[in-house]
């Protein structure tokens, strides 16, 4: 694999990770509803989930590709840098909210739309730092046990378990705890919170199954794993 392709692949995966992460923070407050052909426990025939579900699922796809290509330490660096970028996003949003406005009415609407996003970011931060690091840890524990084979197993197992952790922490904090503590937006009822957890996790689990061929494709296109020196490997140079 050429040095140029290695650099492009590394930058592209980090860019996808950060773009999906920030998009998730800005879209999570919209609730989506999808009808199902059958009823499932808690949600019934309709699943309700935050608008960020798809964008956030892409972060796990990017981190799994990055883990396989460049190693556990490099992936954890990417995950933790992304964590810090959440604070940058929060600071930029609130600096804009608090800045003097030319049109007070528009400013009020702007605040009403974006201020509740603080709940989303706080919930996401807590969920993110736990679930993403768990995802990288499980991925490489399985890789240590299976070697370079069975990429499908570590992709599905790491994503499925980390998404479960992420979903519970995020939904409970963002839609139930933070609105009560911070006073931004209206807290959801317990029944809606449970429905959001089930709905979001079902979608994430489906994506984890569907994205496995794409993980293989990306890893193959970028020349396969470049890990050397165990889990201390860094991104390709």
From TrEMBL:
One GO MF term attached to the UniProt entry: transmembrane transporter activity
Function: Involved in the import of queuosine (Q) precursors, required for Q precursor salvage.
PANTHER family the UniProt entry points to: QUEUOSINE PRECURSOR TRANSPORTER-RELATED (PTHR34300:SF2)
Recorded GO CC terms: plasma membrane
Tree of life domain: Archaea
Protein name (Swiss-Prot/TrEMBL): Probable queuosine precursor transporter
Record's keyword terms, sorted: Cell membrane, Membrane, Transmembrane, Transmembrane helix, Transport
Transmembrane segments: 40-62, 74-97, 109-130, 151-176, 188-207
Upper classification of the organism: Archaea, Methanobacteriati, Methanobacteriota, Stenosarchaea group, Halobacteria
Any one Pfam family match given in the protein's UniProt record, by short name: Vut_1
Organism: Halobellus clavatus
Compartmental location: Cell membrane
InterPro entries the UniProt entry points to: YhhQ
Family from the record: Belongs to the vitamin uptake transporter (VUT/ECF) (TC 2.A.88) family. Q precursor transporter subfamily.
């Amino acid at each position: 694999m050429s040095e140029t392709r290695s650099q492009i692949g590394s930058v592209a995966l980090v860019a996808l990770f950060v773009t999906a992460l920030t998009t998730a923070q800005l879209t999570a407050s919209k609730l989506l509803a999808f009808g199902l052909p059958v009823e499932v426990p808690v949600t019934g025939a309709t699943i309700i989930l935050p608008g960020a579900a798809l964008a956030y699922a892409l972060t796990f796809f990017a981190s799994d590709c990055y883990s396989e290509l460049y190693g556990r330490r490099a992936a954890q660096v990417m995950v933790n840098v992304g964590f810090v970028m959440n604070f940058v996003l929060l600071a930029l949003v609130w600096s804009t909210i608090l800045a003097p406005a030319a049109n007070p009415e528009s400013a009020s609407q702007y605040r009403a739309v974006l201020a509740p996003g603080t709940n989303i970011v706080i919930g996401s931060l807590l969920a993110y730092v736990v679930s993403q690091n768990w995802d990288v840890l499980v991925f490489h524990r399985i890789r240590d046990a299976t070697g370079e084979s069975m990429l499908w197993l570590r992709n599905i197992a790491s994503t499925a378990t980390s998404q479960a952790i992420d979903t519970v922490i995020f939904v409970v904090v963002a839609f139930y705890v933070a609105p009560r503590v911070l006073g931004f937006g209206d807290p959801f009822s317990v029944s809606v919170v449970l429905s959001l957890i089930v709905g979001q996790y079902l979608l994430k689990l489906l994506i984890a199954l569907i994205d496995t061929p794409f993980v293989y494709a990306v890893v193959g296109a970028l020349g396969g794993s470049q890990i050397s020196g165990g889990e201390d490997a860094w991104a390709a140079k």
